[in-house]
Amino acid sequence: MDTTYDIVIVGGGPIGLACGLAAQKAGLRYVILEKGCLVNSLYNYPLNMTFFSTSERLEIGGIPFMSINAKPTRPEALEYYRRVATSKALQVRLFEEVLSIAPDGDLYQVKTPRHIYRGRHVVIATGFYDIPNLMNVPGEDLPKVRHYYKDPHFYAMQKVIVVGAHNSAVDAALETWRKGADVTMVVRESGIGDRVKYWVRPDIENRIKEGSIKAYFHSVIKAIHPDTVDISTPEGEVTVDNDYVIAMTGYQPNFAFLEKAGITLSADSKRYPAYNPDTMETNMPRIYLAGVVCGGMDTHVWFIENSREHAEKIVEHITLK
To answer: Which InterPro entries does the entry link to (predicted)?
Structure first.
């Protein structure tokens, strides 16, 4: 199938959906392409995750997000974004991964395993949750090493090492400990991260202080073995018995995909993509970025609440042209 759209939106997360809503409102012909399920990144969040933001700050398209909690939960968010997509009849193609974006005359050709789409404009709203930051240590490829954390029950009665000290790591440590896991945290920094949710911080600090959860600060994993892990600490290297390693070391955008599309990345370690913050247009004419993908390796800069406005900027720029 060969179809032409005003906008082809790559990514069916909250910001991709927001772009679809803005395009729909402006009367533009659009399609949203998502490689997984609807809001795939949120679906892969931990089952019991609570957002830092309030529900109104997660709203898109001016559609109210009602929650029974002060801070909405993952299930509530999934339900909200699903209802937005269905009630507004958004044109979303799920489980259809974009393989390439290439110029085609005055258009762009967007290729998936199923179809070829042609778009006058392309919006990339792919987030950063698909590629984990690796520790690059021996044994990281063992089956017991997990870079995604879902359900704490799986780790009941197991010896678990959690790597990291930010929200994902703290949640994993506390939840698995409460399910009966023997939990050890390995933290590169001197303490728990500054951005940890304020209602969670006292809990993890008290569990560490009382010794319920062991924590090695200023420490890194040196090697992972089937039944043990070697940890480099300020007091020297220690070896601990271990069943599972939950490496909450963060994630990064698909930089190879951006570069393949012709988008320039900064030469430093941050790998910021080139775009105009007023219009969100990249160095490639008529290709735009939206959402957390804009931040390069600074994945803590953009969130739903401060990047949902990208949708309006992009559609306004397109319609004014």
So the answer is: Auxin_biosynth/cation_transpt (IPR050982), Bdr (IPR023856), FAD/NAD-bd_sf (IPR036188)
CA angle 227, 232, 236 (to 5 degrees): 110
Q: What is the DSSP string of 43-103?
A: HTS-TT-B-SS-GGGG--TT-----SSSS-BHHHHHHHHHHHHHHTT--EE-S----EEEE
| CB-based contact 152:175 (threshold 8 Å) | yes
User: Are the C-beta atoms of 9 and 23 separated by less than 8 Å?
Assistant: yes
Return phi, psi of residue 100, to 5°.
-160, 155
- 2-131+251-320 has which CATH code? 3.50.50.60
The pTM assigned to this predicted structure is 0.91
Q: Are 243 and 262 in contact (CB under 8 A)?
A: no
Residue 229 burial (10 A CB sphere; 0-12, 13-18, 19+):
buried
Residues of the chain with CATH 3.50.50.60: 2-131+251-320, 134-247
Structure tokens at 31: 């399609």
Query: Do 83 and 59 contact (CB within 8 A), yes or no?
Result: no
Pairing between strand 228-233 and 100-104? unpaired
Strand ranges across the sheet with 220-224: 220-224, 228-233, 236-241
Question: Which residues, including other chains, have CB under 8 Å from residue 71's CB and lie 6 or more apart?
Answer: 50, 51, 52, 53, 54
| pLDDT per residue as tens digits for the range 158-210 | 999 999 999 999 999 999 999 999 999 999 999 999 989 999 999 999 999 99
Residue 198 DSSP code: T
CATH of region 134-247: 3.50.50.60
Mention every residue, 6+ apart, whose C-beta is less than 8 A from residue 43. 36, 37, 78
Best CA proximity match to 128, nearest among 17, 279, 255: 255
Quick one: which H or E segment has residue 201? Answer: helix 201-210
